[in-house]
Amino acid sequence: MNIHTLVADYRRRDHRGAILRLLCEYAADPAINGPGLSFDVRKRVVDELAARDHAVSILAFAEHVDGGSTAVGLINGFETFSTFSAMPVLNLHDVMVMRGYRGQGIGKRLLDAATDLARQRGCCKVTLEVYRGNQTAAGLYRNSGFNDPAGSRDLGETIFLNKIL
What we know:
- By secondary structure, the protein is of the alpha+beta class.
- It has one domain (3-155): Gcn5-related N-acetyltransferase (GNAT) (Aminopeptidase, 3-Layer(aba) Sandwich).
- The chain contains four helices and five strands, in the order βααβββαβα.
- A five-stranded mixed sheet has the order 1-2-3-4-5, with helices on both faces.
- The longest helix is centred in the first third of the chain and has 15 residues, at 13-27.
- The chain is globular, with a radius of gyration of 16 Å.
- The protein starts with a strand and ends in a 22-residue tail after the last helix.
């Protein structure tokens, strides 16, 4: 299967539709215990991404023999800033591949595309979070060069916290 990745253009209707379709599938995935996206969020999410200068979406497309293609993978990322390095950071917030296409290297291709984009933007690192129980995703990330931060091992495990507003 031929796969290609590209940075989505939020102005393109086909890219907007692909982002929404893939994000809806991801948000309902049992691997992340997701409740799915509400109707209100589905109506607004792509516009909200487009309104943020530091948001980026990367799509993976599977090409068909008839010349068409289907979006089968998505990363949504946000450029942040490392005060310790005084350089930008690319944080990957959503990383997903459609169920029927998993295990074929598409996730790795998406992560490679995100890493290339981060280098082009002069980022000092790429970050992401993964649920401890999602060993499949954690394995993909580690096989793609993502590691626990070396400087914090003596301090204990890095955990992800949030505060819902």
